[in-house]
Design goal:
With 227 residues, the protein is mainly α. It has one domain. Helix content is 82%, strand content 0%. It is built from seven helices and no strands. The longest helix has 36 residues. The N and C termini lie far apart (40 Å).
């Protein structure tokens, strides 16, 4: 019979796998979206595939927070009351629904409003995670080991990379709509290619940070920060 710890650890591992795997699929699909040698119809199909696959990493990011907290609790490296974990899962469920709604209503006023709310929430979350990590390194707060504080900091950096992808990739949506409505021009293709290039470092940053976070979870290094 599987114990709760085993099930939560399995979920945590699968989230890493599907997050990284989904991101690689998005990265590969983007090559065909910006390939001007393809027909517009083929590029539209590639964009639909990209949009669908991109939801997988988004869902994994949302679920990583409550699953990671629950696993840390099982290991004994966080100290929080039971009611917090119930609240955390409720927040995660609402956030997951919002991520789904943003995809469902993409390109509409509602979708754009939800996207803005989601972006603001991510900024707040980055600040909260970084603060928790700092408190943990100081021997205060609810994080009881250096390695879990490092993972919180890495998660904040992961979300920050996603924010930068969204900010630097903002012109892409309008450029693609213009492309599919009016056809290709050298200037439009340059905008599309340039936008993908500006976001690429942050995509690679996410991959690197995921690998580092996985290593920290396995090695559990203690850095001697806590007094």
């Amino acid at each position: 019979m599987l114990e709760p710890y085993t099930l939560i650890k399995l979920a945590h591992i699968l989230l890493f796998v599907y997050w990284l795997g989904g991101d690689i699929g998005v990265f590969y699909s983007a090559y065909y979206v910006r390939d001007r040698s393809l027909s517009l119809e083929a590029r539209q199909v590639a964009l639909r595939i990209l949009g669908w696959v991109d939801q997988i990493p988004r869902y994994c990011l949302v679920l990583m927070l409550p699953v990671g907290y629950s696993l840390a609790r099982q290991v004994g490296v966080v100290r929080l009351p039971d009611v917090f974990f119930v609240l955390l899962w409720v927040i995660a469920a609402l956030w997951l629904a919002m991520v789904w709604a943003i995809h469902r209503h993409a390109g509409t006023p509602l979708g754009e409003k939800l996207r803005s709310i989601d972006l603001g929430w991510r900024v707040v979350l980055v600040a909260g995670l970084a603060w928790d990590a700092w408190q943990g390194f100081q021997g205060r707060g609810h994080l009881l080991a250096d390695w879990i504080s490092i993972k919180f900091l890495l998660f904040a950096l992961l979300i920050s990379c996603g924010i930068m992808i969204r900010v630097r990739g903002r012109p892409l949506g309008a450029a693609l709509r213009e492309l599919f409505a009016s056809g290709s021009t050298p200037e439009l293709e340059a905008r599309i290619t340039g936008t993908f290039a500006r976001t690429r470092p942050f995509v690679l940053g996410i991959w690197a940070l995921l690998v580092i976070a996985a290593w920290v979870g396995l090695a559990k290094p203690e850095m001697g920060f806590t007094p």
